[in-house]
Amino acid sequence: MDWIEIKKDPKHIAKEKNKAKKLRKSQWWLNKISVGICHYCKKKFNANELTMDHVVPISRGGLSNKKNIVPCCKKCNSEKKYLTPVEMIMNQTNNAKDE
Ligand SMILES: [Zn+2]
């Protein structure tokens, strides 16, 4: 079983999303967002203004590990949206909840 080889398997996506969820609660991530630097624009933000972003989207075979997950401000996240279908779906889900 080598999940890295499976690029578009829904199980891969579910597994990596789940790992990302766990990482979001980790001390490593809390440290990252308390430093508060957006990976893309390099500006400083409050922890609650940063979102978790996959450099290589999970849907393209990206993994939820410390090399592939970066803090991203909401502006960069929304500008990057069209490149990352998984995040678009996630955002749509979130928006649906808010409305
Ligand atoms: Zn940014």
Strand content: 5-15%
CATH class bucket: Mainly Alpha
Helix content: 40-55%
Distance between the termini: 41 Å
- The beta-strand count equals 2
Class computed from helices, strands and strand pairing? mainly alpha
Radius of gyration: 13 Å
What is the H/E string?
Answer: HHEEHH
What ions, cofactors and ligands are bound? zinc ion
CATH names the topology as: DNA Binding (I), subunit A
Give the total of domains: 1
The poorly predicted ranges are: none
Which CATH architecture would you pick? Orthogonal Bundle
- Averaging pLDDT over every residue, what do you get? 83
Shape: globular
Main-sheet strand order equals 1-2
The major β-sheet equals: 2 strands, antiparallel
Number of helices: 4
Question: Can you give a write-up of this model?
Answer:
The protein has 99 residues and is mainly α. Helices cover 44% and strands 10% of the residues. The protein has a single domain (3-94), classed as Orthogonal Bundle (DNA Binding (I), subunit A). The chain is built from 4 helices and 2 strands, in the order H-H-E-E-H-H. A two-stranded antiparallel sheet has the order 1-2. The protein is globular, with a radius of gyration of 13 Å. Bound molecules: zinc ion. Zinc ion is lined by residues 38, 40-41, 43, 73, 75-76.
Task: Please give a handful of descriptors for the protein shown.
99 residues, mainly alpha, DNA Binding (I), subunit A, two-stranded antiparallel sheet, 4 helices, 2 strands, 44% helix, globular, binds zinc ion
